[in-house]
TrEMBL record:
Pathway: Protein modification; protein ubiquitination. PROSITE patterns: MIB_HERC2, ZF_ZZ_2. Pfam families: MIB_HERC2 (PF06701), SH3_15 (PF18346), ZZ (PF00569). The keyword Plastid does not apply. It is found in: Cytoplasm. Its main location: cytoplasm. GO terms for molecular function: ubiquitin protein ligase activity; zinc ion binding. This is MIB/HERC2 domain-containing protein. Residues 1-72, 141-219 form the MIB/HERC2 domain. Keywords: Coiled coil, Cytoplasm, Metal-binding, Repeat, Transferase, Ubl conjugation pathway, Zinc, Zinc-finger. GO terms for biological process: endocytosis; Notch signaling pathway; protein ubiquitination.
Length: 381
């Protein structure tokens, strides 16, 4: 699941920021943020429809402040999948696939409006090919009302609308008449506003993270099963069709000419990508079309790659539970269940633990660990 500017969000399970968002059910939008700093903590910037902007946790301190309300606003679509209620095709945003009826899918608007059987269970599919997450029955969940930049909202000039100081729109509030694509393929990213005495005009409400408007009085957007929405940044939502997840270590094992060919339309070719062939990187994000952002820690460079160019690397476990004594009398410590081993001389001083058991302080891959001894083996504690 990509974290692109323009995604619409609501408060999540670990929210502790009071009424910054305007209250339960109020919407916000991920805004442009710095992706070049490798030391950036796992957080994201959001501008709430009421106008306030803040930085929120998406895994930092194992906390998640946000849920994803709509990613159709960044162009996510399930090609050739039709909503079996409203008949719209493709389904933009999250796809809801029925567990009880084969080949039955509905869009988010119909799902949260209570369409189709409420006693049926649905799988949530955030992006095409993503992990299918089974939801509880909707008749066992309590919906909430969502509020924000919806038809009927009274609006003011927002942070991204550049107007002169004398612009009359600063003196009056407008009325949001309807939501529409600001650009084809990006639904609900534009708003038609009647703004006296200027008249009707179109404004950005989330397109590429830009917010031309803020609410004076929020509009009502219908009901929403908030507990069914994905937790933004949570690992279960980050898996893509290739079986890769954020945090995986990967390597490119192919010739440059094949890499160039696969990159066409998937991040495209950028000078310097060939230098990463054979180098180990870490997956930092998965985009809406399932391309993979990989960071190379040694160079701090980040690239977008086609998933087929990447091979998952098994990261050796740093410790094992069993340590043998070899024929020389040295302690042979298995670091991984493969052939990787570290040998620690038996001359290391023995130590007493607080519980009275004896053991040795051993160094495993540069890390000192305490190990207890018995006949013929050591056990890492």
């Amino acid at each position: 699941m990509t974290l692109e500017p323009g995604i619409r969000v609501v408060r999540g399970p670990d929210w502790k920021w009071g009424e910054q968002d305007g209250g339960l059910g109020h919407l916000g939008t991920i805004v442009p943020f710095d992706t070049t700093n490798p030391n950036t903590k796992p957080s994201i910037e959001v501008r709430w429809d009421r106008g306030l902007r803040g930085d929120y946790r998406i895994g930092y301190e194992d906390s998640y402040d946000l849920r994803l309300y709509d990613n159709g606003t960044v162009g996510v679509s399930h090609v050739d999948v039709r909503c079996d209620v409203c008949r719209k095709c493709p389904i933009f945003g999250i796809r809801w696939k029925c567990m009880n009826i084969d080949h039955y899918n509905i869009c988010s608007a119909c799902y949260h409006a209570g369409k189709a059987s409420l006693s049926h269970q649905f799988y949530r599919i955030v992006i095409p090919g993503a992990t299918e997450v089974l939801m509880e029955k909707r008749n066992a969940s309590d919906p909430i009302e969502v509020k924000g930049l919806f038809p009927g909202a009274k609006v003011r000039v927002g942070s991204d609308l550049k107007v002169d100081k004398e612009d009359v729109r600063k003196l009056y509030q407008g009325t949001l008449k309807r939501l529409e694509p600001f650009v084809e393929g990006f639904p609900n990213t534009g708003a038609l506003v009647n703004w006296p005495p200027v008249g009707q005009s179109r404004y950005r409400v989330g397109f590429k993270g830009m917010m031309d408007l803020k609410t004076k009085e929020p509009g009502l957007g219908g009901m929403c099963y908030r507990s069914h929405l994905p937790v933004l940044g949570h690992p279960v939502e980050l898996e893509c069709v290739e079986g890769l997840v954020v945090g995986d270590h990967v390597i490119i094992n192919m010739e440059e000419n094949l890499l160039r060919e696969l990159q066409e339309g998937h991040g495209d070719w950028v000078q310097g990508m060939a230098d990463e062939i054979g180098q180990e990187g870490v997956i930092r994000d998965i985009t809406s079309n399932q391309d993979i952002m990989v960071e190379y820690p040694e160079s701090s460079r980040k690239w977008i790659f086609h998933p087929a160019t990447l091979t998952k690397v098994k990261v050796p476990r740093r410790l094992s539970s069993v340590v043998e004594v070899d024929e020389s009398g040295d302690y042979k410590i298995a670091v991984d269940k493969t052939v990787q081993q570290a040998v620690i001389p038996k001359s290391n001083n023995s130590h007493k633990r607080p519980d009275g058991s004896s053991g040795k302080l051993v160094q495993i891959m540069g890390i000192f660990q305490y190990a207890s001894t018995n006949t013929g083996c050591l056990k890492v504690l």
